[in-house]
Amino acid sequence: MEEITKPRRHMVLSLFMITGGYHYDSWTLPGSRVEELGYPELIVDMARRAEAAKLDALFFGDISSAGKVPGADPTVSGHYEPITSLAVVSQHTSRIGLIGTASTTFCDPYNVARQFAGLDTLSHGRAGWNIVTSASGNENFGLDSMPPPEERYRRATEFTAVVTALWDSWSDEAVISDRARGIWADPAKIRAIDHKGEYFSVQGPINMRRPPQGRPIMVQAGSSGPGIELGSSYADAIYTAQPDRGESIDFYRFYKEKVRSKGRNPDHVKILPGLVPILGRTEKEAQELVAYLGAHVRMDTGRYILGQRLKMRLGELDLDRPSPAEWFLGPEQESNSRYQIFRHLAVDKGYTLRELILEHARGHGHQWVSGTPAAVADRMIDWFENGACDGFSLNSAFVPGGLDLICDLLVPELQERGYFRTEYEGTTLRDHLSLPRPGAWDTAR
Q1: Taking burial as the number of CB atoms within 10 A of a residue's CB, which of 80, 177, 208, 347 is the most buried?
Q2: What CATH number has the domain bearing residue 248?
Q3: pTM score > 0.90 for this model?
Q4: Is residue 442 part of a domain?
Q5: Nearest-angstrom CA–CA distance, 224 and 444
Q6: Which residue, 91, 337, 88, 86, is CA-closest to 217?
Q7: Which structural domain range is residue 227 located in?
């Protein structure tokens, strides 16, 4: 029998914790756990399920407002405040990484540094910070309007530098617990950061020991010019919407070169496009599930949500006629990557509004793929082997069934082929991602 050659590295796989199901309106399906949204039992069960499958990390997104119609759409993030929720999950898991969102527009760096350092310590080195600048929510934070993107990213860059300096402000050898002299931590190994910048004045040091990972993992998702500048400077992983293989390869090469140009190792920045797998044990079963999920999409709600995403008024468009190209040719959304994805579908492929709504319902601009575990794994391996990604951010189309299909069918297929682990190799999130641990202020980085 011919020996199967195993790949030299495995994919990174994280799970986006959209607890109502990623496919729009899947929360209305029988068997969903929508009544439990906001309570700990649901996320603890999901986390344990993902950890049993040996996934690298969980990721909690977040938003800073209740939306235009509060309570209407449980698909969006926000039901779980990330830090408190991940702290709960940390006590019911032991290996899986715990990534949460905190806004650089609405938070301050000293508190964010403490929160994620605390989570890293509580979880013994499994924390990650998803850096976002936020695109809405100003009305809840005393701002008449959102600052322009350039200003938000300028603030975010300084914010991230301050947080990093605070994590590094304690030496790894600072805690000595010297009972004889009555000194718990050596003051000579703790230093102020004395930061004075455009947005922040922070003396430091942080008031807690250095996190187990040195610095919690940093994740970023901006694909605009300023977002790429921030991510390539600081992030350890990049979440991105890349539904097209060729464009994802181009993005991967560009981003890795950007990282290299800043003196960083490109292998230490993982590119993770979003993926929505809709699985069946047979192709027929998978296609039936696609149709079943699509049949539950409410077109009136879908029209409104897509319009909000694209910042366009879609009320006048007929659902079943090709979308007028002139509606999608304005320059005002040039920096919005999701707008460009749907503009391509409308203008270049002639999608009707109904088709655009269904596409948005399934993937939100990310790649969605249906089929057997072998067929979906083929697609993932093709992207991975041909330089389109380092892994994927997995989105469960519906909960809990979609997560069960990922863990019971897709992950074992990847494990069998050698593209994913069967056991955790280490204990920290840095271990899972094969990333080095950075030194503090008193050691070479």
Answers
A1: 80
A2: 3.20.20.30
A3: yes
A4: no
A5: 32
A6: 86
A7: 12-277+367-433
